[in-house]
Amino acid sequence: MRAKRTDSNQKQIVEDLRDLGLSVFPTHEVGRGFPDLVVGAGGETYLVEIKRPAGPRGGLHGKKQNEEQIAFAERWKGGAVIVARSTEEVLEGIEHQLGTTIRTAVN
Fold it and tell me: What separation in angstroms does the CA of 19 have from each of 5, 87, 91, 106?
């Protein structure tokens, strides 16, 4: 069985979130459309799909969600799946769902 690949920015995002005191469990190997990360913050749990950012020459904003990922998000009865290309986007998604700020600054 082939190991699942991660987007090139996932490792840094995981490290950044952990440095901010959030719980992070990588789930990219689950497959079948399940998001890449489970993140705990503010007493809540969030599902996060990581996508790579746009290339150096612009163009597409990284890879888009595949059909399985879209179907999973549509069936999921919990909070919306956060689709992010950076630590900042993950934090914005969590703060939006939580309704409050969980950080003072992110570099």
Answer: 23, 11, 13, 10
Q: Enumerate residues 6+ apart whose C-beta is below 8 A from 77.
A: none
Single pTM value for the model:
0.83
Contact 85, 53 (CB under 8 A): yes
| pLDDT tens digits, one per residue of 51-98 | 988 766 555 555 788 999 999 999 999 999 999 999 999 999 999 998
* Residue at token pair 């497959």: 31
Residue 44 to residue 14: CA distance in whole angstroms: 17
Kindly state the average pLDDT of the residues 29-36: 92
Rounded distance between C-alpha atoms, residue 52 and residue 8, angstroms: 6
Q: Map out the domains of the chain with their CATH numbers.
A: 10-98 (3.40.1350.10)
Q: Is the pLDDT of residue 30 over 50?
A: yes
Would you give the distance in Å from CA 18 to the centre of its chain?
Answer: 13
